[in-house]
């Protein structure tokens, strides 16, 4: 079974631009979560989607948004990019999004903002 | 709020040495606890987990026991290999938080031959 895939793997943008990252979960998984990883803040939860609905949200500004499609694929969007948005963005999927589920992570998208 | 405190790295050991990476947590209720590993240039891989007090998670020679009385989940391995070099993350998840994992800062481990 294929794992979680994320595209693109690397992205370079300039300040003020916007970016869209994509995540395809493991087949059959319905919950998708997003995390931001930076050297200074570590791994921080962005949001979780289940059955096309945002179910949980971390403490990030409104410039960070996401959505989930009927096939469980998810996208996250960052508008008006800032230098501090440079990070590794990780997507994780789980089967039902229940408290006992295991999350499986993708390889991440490395975003560099210049 | 919920938090995880990990032993600061980096940690450097020789091959076949004994490994302990300390992890303590603060959480409401009874969280599930996890250890994830990140190899260079890759995402996170689940190493092991424990969902209730006194559970022991184990995988690939690594072990960790969920200790409610000390709110700890220390990672151990009896004999490390060069291939174990990676960054290790301790994490928790509360039932209220559903799929929200709260991570420690990570511990970089280097094993020298």
Overview of the structural elements:
- By secondary structure, chain A is mainly beta.
- In chain A, strands 2, 4, 5, 6, 9, 10 and 11 form a seven-stranded mixed β-sheet that branches. A four-stranded antiparallel β-sheet of chain A has the order 1-3-8-7, with no helix packed on it.
- Chain A has strands at residues 5-7, 10-13, 19-24, 31-38, 42-50, 53-57, 64-68, 74-78, 87-94, 104-105, 109-113.
- With 113 residues, chain B is mainly beta.
- In chain B, strands 2, 5, 6, 10, 11 and 12 form a six-stranded mixed β-sheet that branches. In chain B, strands 3-9-8-7 form a four-stranded antiparallel β-sheet, with no helix packed on it.
- Chain B starts with a strand and ends with a strand.
- Classes of the chains: A mainly beta (114), B mainly beta (113).
- At the A-B interface, strand 4, strand 5, strand 9 and strand 10 of A face strand 6, strand 10 and strand 11 of B.
Give the topology, please.
The complex is a heterodimer of chains A (114) and B (113).
Chain A: E1 5-7, E2 10-13, E3 19-24, E4 31-38, E5 42-50, E6 53-57, E7 64-68, E8 74-78, E9 87-94, E10 104-105, E11 109-113
Parallel strand pairs in A: 2-11
Antiparallel strand pairs in A: 1-3, 3-8, 4-5, 4-9, 5-6, 7-8, 9-10, 9-11
Chain B: E1 3-6, E2 11-14, E3 19-21, E4 23-26, E5 32-38, E6 44-50, E7 56-59, E8 62-65, E9 75-77, E10 86-93, E11 102-103, E12 107-112
Parallel strand pairs in B: 2-12
Antiparallel strand pairs in B: 1-4, 3-9, 5-6, 5-10, 7-8, 8-9, 10-11, 10-12
